[in-house]
Amino acid sequence: MKKVIKPLDVIVLIILIALTGCKKSDSGTNPENPSTPTIPTGAINGLFTINENGGQVYFSQGNLQYQASTDTWRFAEHQWDYIGMDNENISPAYNGWIDLFGWGTGNNPTNSSTNDEDYDTFNDWGYNAISNGGNTLNQWRTLMRDEWRYVFYTRSTPSGIRYAKAQVNGVNGVILLPDDWSSSHYGLNSTNTYYESYSSNTISASQWNTLEQHGAVFLPAAGGRYGTDVYSVGSLGFYWSATYSNSDCACFVGFHDSTLHTDNRDHRKDGNCVRLVCPAEN
Question: Is 176 helix (H, G, I), strand (E, B) or coil?
């Protein structure tokens, strides 16, 4: 005896097929709709690969700054912003902002000791809650020396461009281009060339908006600090890594008008810039 398929059975069967299809689509296996990382609050919209395993990060929107009187951390409003000579006021009671820090002083940002042994332990600045960077503990971190090196020299990108010296809004520094950078976004001169001068690319604030919208990062030449003495503001850039070097030093990225190196060693007591990153998570 043949089984008669009733109209209600057909409707139920159609619903079951539809539900099964939805479940497959929601699993994230559809190659036409790949998952994309969520851009963290306070980050530049550009992904940078930092190791051969394909790990990627977002850079913060600006250099790290600290106000001792309110115990507040923040990122600079613009990528070209820096504090400069006011870092000479560094102290636990200072009510202004500072942005040149001794190595690993995430737990003691106003430390201005000129003894390297007072900076033996690395406490990442990113352990702190950054007021305009999500305001969450342990969201950000400092790149290691090898990760900085990978960003500058090793990444394989479709455009082949990784960095360029520049003057952005009148400020000297270095531009880092994200993994997916296209030369059609903005034409840069003398790319991937460490010995070129800042003036090889002169970029206005309005022009920089175009680069930033496509994920470009700018590291300003904000100078350095020794004790309470600030020097080379506007001409030299020093950016800490999280890598210990020896009993006196740690590793940092350094650049000026005719050179750029990612393997520099600096006394841990010296005050340098900090540019944090946030791991990309799907």
Answer: strand
Phi, psi (rounded to 5 degrees) for 256: -145, -165
Q: What are phi and psi of 117, to 5 degrees?
A: -65, -15
Cα separation, 228 vs 139, in Å, equals: 30
User: How is residue 47 written in tokens?
Assistant: 């992904």
What are the E-state strand segments in the chain?
A: 48-49, 56-59, 64-67, 72-75, 163-168, 171-176, 202-203, 217-220, 224-226, 229-231, 237-244, 249-256, 259-267, 277-279
CA 32 to chain centre: 30
Number of Cβ within 10 Å of residue 75's Cβ equals 25
For residue 72, the SS3 value is strand
Cα–Cα–Cα angle for 50, 56, 57, rounded to 5 degrees: 95
pLDDT tens, N- to C-terminus, the chain (282 residues): 434 444 444 333 333 333 333 333 333 333 444 556 789 999 999 999 999 999 999 999 999 999 999 999 999 999 999 999 999 999 999 999 999 999 999 999 999 999 999 999 999 999 999 999 999 999 999 999 999 999 999 999 999 999 999 999 999 999 999 999 999 999 999 999 999 999 999 999 999 999 999 999 999 999 999 999 999 999 999 999 999 999 899 999 999 999 999 989 999 999 999 999 999 985
Tokens of 232: 């080379």
- What does pTM read for this prediction? 0.87
Beta strand 249-256 with 237-244 is: antiparallel
